[in-house]
Design brief:
Layout: E1 5-9, H1 16-29, E2 37-41, H2 47-54, E3 60-63, H3 80-85, E4 90-93, H4 96-100, H5 106-118, E5 122-127, H6 131-135, H7 139-154, E6 163-166, H8 180-197, H9 199-204, E7 207-210, H10 215-222, E8 229-232, H11 239-252
Parallel strand pairs: 1-2, 1-8, 2-3, 3-4, 4-5, 5-6, 6-7, 7-8
Helix pairs in contact: 1-2, 1-11, 5-7, 7-8, 10-11
Bound molecules: phosphoenolpyruvate.
């Protein structure tokens, strides 16, 4: 049985006051969503605020990125142990915005995945194809490369403590969502890759879908057998839509 997770990626949004009001609104409703794990991913600077507000609640938090190692001369970077120090449970690794805008390559992403685990954080490894790759029937090839590069580096057993987020690049922040069937096909493919390495990891691996998930398209996605929750960007910035998505997954459990 895989417990669903709804994760809100706040990206580079928010101020202390809006973070506070968003958290308070989500917190008030959390008791209605006991069958769902909920987590928020604020910017680094908002982590102390989020930790103070969410400690001793069922809602977890994580970071959107990290750098390698523990300490060092890496101006502007934040390490895994620093995130653990602020109570982070998760960290996003390989989000498409990191891969494209910040040119993170397969090697660096695999190293970041390992750095997260070394700090006791659970990586949410984000993978997905571009529109051009989908249109040229390269979706599966692209997904396999993104997964195998981390499996080769970290070893399959590392995935006992990891989550996958399938996020088609063409659906992130665009308002275009994969249909439930399109998403399910890729989720099943991802699960099959893990199954081939290790049956138990394949069957228990939580695989989230991300890409313009909203309350009105969530139910169809969550009805699919291999979709175990969502990584939500834009719709996680308002309590009403974030909770609306959490409500939809409760219906299908
Ligand atoms: C994301 O940032 O991971 C994401 C899926 O964004 P959005 O929901 O806005 O498409």
């Amino acid at each position: 049985m895989r417990k669903p997770l709804i994760a809100g990626n706040w990206k580079m949004h928010g101020r202390r006051s809006t973070v506070r009001s968003l958290i308070e609104a989500i917190k008030q409703e959390a008791k209605h969503f006991q069958h769902v794990d909920m987590a928020v991913f604020p910017s680094f600077v908002h982590l102390p605020e989020v930790e103070a507000l969410l400690s001793n609640t069922p809602i977890a938090w994580g970071a959107q990125n990290l750098y390698l190692g523990e300490n060092g001369a890496f101006t502007g970077e934040v390490s895994g142990p620093m995130l653990a120090d602020y109570g982070c449970r998760y960290v996003l690794i390989g989000h498409s915005e990191r891969r494209t805008i910040f040119q993170e390559n397969l090697e660096l992403i695999a190293l970041k995945f390992q750095a997260a685990q070394a700090a006791g954080l659970k990586p949410i490894l984000c993978i997905g194809e571009t529109l051009a790759e989908r249109q040229s029937q390269q979706t599966e090839e692209k997904i396999a490369i993104q997964l195998e590069s981390v499996i080769t580096k970290a070893g399959i057993n590392a995935f006992h403590q990891a989550i996958i987020a399938y996020e088609p690049v063409w659906a992130i922040g665009t308002g275009l969502t994969a249909t439930p069937e399109q998403a399910q096909d890729v989720h099943a493919f991802i699960r099959q890759i893990f199954m081939q390495h290790n049956h138990e990891i394949g069957s228990t691996m939580p695989i989230l879908y991300g890409g313009s998930v909203k309350p009105d398209n969530a139910e169809g996605l969550f009805a699919m057998p291999d979709i175990d929750g969502a990584l939500v960007g834009g719709a996680s910035l308002e309590a009403k839509s974030f909770l609306g998505i959490c409500e939809k997954i409760s219906f299908v459990c």
